Amino acid sequence: MTTAAQAPTRLQLSAAFCAVYLFWGGTFLAVRYAVVDIPPLLTIGLRCAGGAVVLFAWLAVRGELAAGTWAQWRTAAVAGLFLFLGCHGLMAWAEQRVTSGQAALLMTAIPVWMVVLSALIERRAPSARVAMSLLLGIAGVAVLTSGGEWSGELVDQMALSFGALSWAAGSLIGRHGARPASVTQTTAMQLLAGAAWVLAASAVSGELDGRSVAEVTPRAAGALVFLIVCGTVLGFGAYTWLLRTTSPAAASSYGFVNPVVALALGWLVGDDRITAQVLVAAALVVLAVVLIRQPAAPSEKPASMTSTARSRS
């Protein structure tokens, strides 16, 4: 990973965006498979804990593991609450009833919330290019959802919508709050904090009552491994890095791509259908991403380049 002061290369940016677009697009189906046999909060708690263990072990082997300051752990705790309990926990709970594609569609609200909350924090309106990309992304989602049938209840739709807002809030808290210089350390701390929140909620809700490890099928176990390795270690690590090196709008553009990936995977396994309607929506989403990923203007430099001293506190 590059340090905060280094400009990312085109190859690094492309690899990070591909990881977030493809791996996170696949996590919706993986979560749906996992929650069939593993309680939803426990699924997310194990995902976060597994990712944290892998990353802390990596840091220890490289001799880069640091204790972290109180301010850094406070940021990780608050960000982890919003990111993993407020978003992923609710998403896993809802995916017991809704399809992976439908869950991904409602998560496309994340880029909108990111831009809105960023504008409020920075007290400036988004650029015309960003506004146009958001409108195209919203249009793509409207095309995807028009005339479709919702498989869950209204409470599931409300939970997923709140999850999108919660993820945007957690992302910006992690972006602007105190954090280590190492992206890997930042990711590991947020995952550990998130695991603590979600596993505590799982225990309080009684998810483990009457459960046995023997009930977990190979498919659910494989889905959980994918969530830990690809969705968490690689995907969330890439996302944390993108939050430092690009604008919030660009980093959150995965919200428009993930539904296309999720729907394609859902179609392959019979969970969703691919129609001309989906293809038109995909074209709008791709155009939105092309616009939103343009380099930021000088006045829109990433927070990591303007507050490095604070991030090391």
Describe this structure as you would to a colleague.
- This protein is mainly α and about 325 residues long.
- It has one domain (about 25-310).
- It has 14 helices and no strands.
- The protein has helices spanning about 10-35, 40-60, 70-95, 100-105, 110-120, 130-145, 155-175, 185-205, 220-245, 250, 255-270, 275-290, 305, 310.
- Helix 2 (about 40-60) packs antiparallel against helix 8 (about 185-205) and helix 11 (about 255-270) packs antiparallel against helix 12 (about 275-290).
- The longest helix has 28 residues, at about 220-245.
- The radius of gyration is 19 Å and the shape is globular.
- The two termini are about 20 Å apart.
- The model is unreliable at about 295-313 (pLDDT under 50).
Mean pLDDT: 82
Label the overall shape: globular
User: Main sheet?
Assistant: none
Number of domains: 1
Order of helices and strands: HHHHHHHHHHHHHH
Features:
single chain; 313 residues; mainly alpha; 14 helices; globular; disordered C terminus
